[in-house]
């Protein structure tokens, strides 16, 4: 892509070099660790689901039992698969027996290492094949149905009741939406377990459960066939159960997942170690499943000023890109996030927003960028709010954004109603159609405001990234370099669920996925 902003390739390379150094250091740190959520994910991919008599998810029950026996540092796979072989039970049956107390893992004879490895790898290959079949099914839909034209129109449903969500999602699809995102119930990211089954009582959103994913996927497939369009499904792969939700999404054919390396640390105060370990495994799953991840840099601008903190958004995009590349996620699946969040009352704010969006497009040319609407400065004046959303849509089409999360003119007053969503989709479709090729006709003044703004933001991002390399990533988080929020390596929620891997740590899904994604071998021991 020819740079309209005259961005310096040297500066972009410096930024990527610094971000790569940051990602390498963090990867070295997290490769020595696992978490309870990673190990629960392994069990889910083995086929374990459901809850015990007290409503506790079976993956939690089994991981807690293995942890209590002192074996979690080596991963759940070895003791669990050995128990399967000793008892002759399948994964689900064994988990149920552990939950009802009829089997004690510590009393069972141990199978040989070779037997366990062979059986575990076979189970992992079966789990990976299920994901591959879902990806193939998506590809088949996209070969038969219209997949939409960028910027893809992304809207939210958030009733709390999955069945009502389906009604609203179908309506949105008929109105022209390309992506339906089901907002999670408030606070689910802080639950250290995944709720089970269909749910109807979420607050501010609907619980992310595998059954809810299945119900919504089925509803969107039906309306998609009716419309001759493939409707993509999005949910939130973040929080304390990040990799588990990634696995559930892969098994139920979600297409887009909110999956940021830093969001949970900064905005949910989840321990940095926990988040960074979890994001690596979750992104490996998303990479293989063909899921587009959405990152959350837009959130920085809700706590920090969008003009002053613009470079932190770019710096975080570089870091998210490098973390993703290290676990095999291709650029075409990186929905790097940013937002139209500058105060609309400032002079030339539109020009600065345009500079930011064009800069992201030029620096990450293959990424399906996710562009977020104005929220921080939305107003009860719905007419002005609708104009702000129209300007946001104009920047989106002018700069070739991949995913456009639509703003709603009444979102400052109440949760938008169906008719508000219709007006927002109509707004976006009008602007996108009428300005479809406007970017092809535009060049920027070489030393004008837009070009100068983009170059200044890039320079600040480079300076910040190189500073983080010098200070260390965890110290930078503690200093509050992102979103003016300070987070500490031994603070936040979920630290007790982080474990150093033993030398014989064994995760057959990590091995299988790394092989499928063309990555190198697991760094920390695989076998005894």
UniProtKB/TrEMBL annotation:
One of its GO terms (molecular function) is catalytic activity. Residues 5-509 form the D-Lysine 5,6-aminomutase alpha subunit domain. InterPro entries: Cbl-dep_enz_cat (IPR016176), Lys-AminoMut_A (IPR015130), Lys-AminoMut_asu_sf (IPR037086). It holds the Pfam family Lys-AminoMut_A. This is Lysine 5,6-aminomutase subunit alpha. It comes from the Bacteria. Coiled coil: none annotated. It comes from Alicyclobacillus mengziensis.
């Amino acid at each position: 892509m020819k740079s309209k902003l005259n961005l310096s390739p040297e500066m972009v390379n410096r930024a990527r070099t610094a971000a790569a150094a940051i990602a390498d250091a963090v990867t070295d740190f997290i490769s020595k660790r696992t978490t309870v959520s990673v190990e629960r994910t392994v069990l889910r991919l083995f086929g374990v689901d459901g809850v015990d008599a007290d409503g506790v998810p079976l993956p939690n029950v089994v991981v807690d039992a293995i942890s209590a026996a002192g074996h979690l540092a080596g991963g759940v796979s070895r003791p669990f698969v050995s128990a399967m072989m000793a008892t002759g039970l399948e994964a689900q049956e064994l988990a149920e027996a552990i939950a009802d107390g009829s089997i004690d893992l510590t009393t069972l004879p141990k199978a040989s290492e070779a037997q366990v490895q062979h059986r575990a790898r076979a189970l992992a290959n079966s789990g990976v094949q299920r994901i591959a079949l879902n990806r193939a099914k998506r590809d088949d839909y996209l070969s038969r149905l219209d997949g939409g034209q960028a910027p893809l129109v992304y809207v939210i449903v958030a009733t709390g009741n999955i069945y009502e969500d389906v009604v609203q999602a179908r309506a949105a699809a008929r109105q022209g939406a390309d992506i339906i995102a089901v907002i999670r119930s408030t606070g689910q990211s802080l639950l250290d377990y995944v709720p089970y089954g269909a749910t109807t009582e979420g607050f501010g959103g609907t619980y992310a459960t595998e059954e809810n994913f299945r119900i919504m996927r089925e509803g969107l497939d039906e309306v998609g066939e009716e419309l001759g369009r493939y409707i993509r499904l999005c949910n939130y792969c973040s929080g304390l159960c990040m990799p588990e939700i990634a696995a559930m999404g892969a098994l139920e054919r979600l297409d887009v997942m909110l999956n940021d390396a830093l969001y949970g640390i900064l905005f949910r105060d989840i321990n940095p170690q926990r988040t960074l370990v979890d994001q690596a495994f979750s992104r490996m799953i998303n990479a293989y499943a063909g899921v587009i991840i959405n990152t959350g840099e837009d959130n920085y601008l809700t706590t920090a000023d969008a003009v002053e903190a613009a470079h932190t958004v770019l710096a975080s995009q570089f870091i998210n890109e490098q973390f993703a590349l290290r676990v095999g996620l291709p650029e075409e699946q990186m929905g790097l996030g940013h937002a139209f969040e500058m105060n609309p009352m400032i002079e030339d704010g539109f020009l600065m927003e345009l500079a930011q969006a064009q800069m992201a497009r030029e620096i990450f040319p293959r990424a399906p960028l996710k562009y977020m609407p104005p929220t921080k400065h939305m107003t009860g004046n719905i007419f002005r709010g609708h104009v702000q959303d129209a300007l946001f849509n104009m920047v989106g089409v002018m700069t070739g954004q991949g995913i456009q999360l639509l703003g709603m003119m009444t979102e400052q007053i109440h949760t938008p109603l169906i008719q508000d969503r219709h007006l927002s989709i109509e707004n976006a479709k009008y602007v996108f159609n009428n300005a479809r090729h406007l970017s092809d006709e535009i060049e920027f003044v070489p030393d004008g405001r837009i070009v100068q703004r983009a170059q200044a933001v890039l320079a600040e991002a480079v300076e910040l990234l190189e500073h983080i390399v010098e200070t260390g990533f965890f110290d930078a988080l503690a200093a509050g370099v992102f979103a003016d929020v300070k987070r500490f390596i031994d603070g936040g929620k979920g630290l007790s669920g982080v474990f150093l891997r033993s030398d014989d740590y064994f995760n057959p899904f990590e091995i299988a996925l790394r092989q499928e994604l063309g990555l190198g071998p697991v760094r920390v021991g695989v076998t005894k």
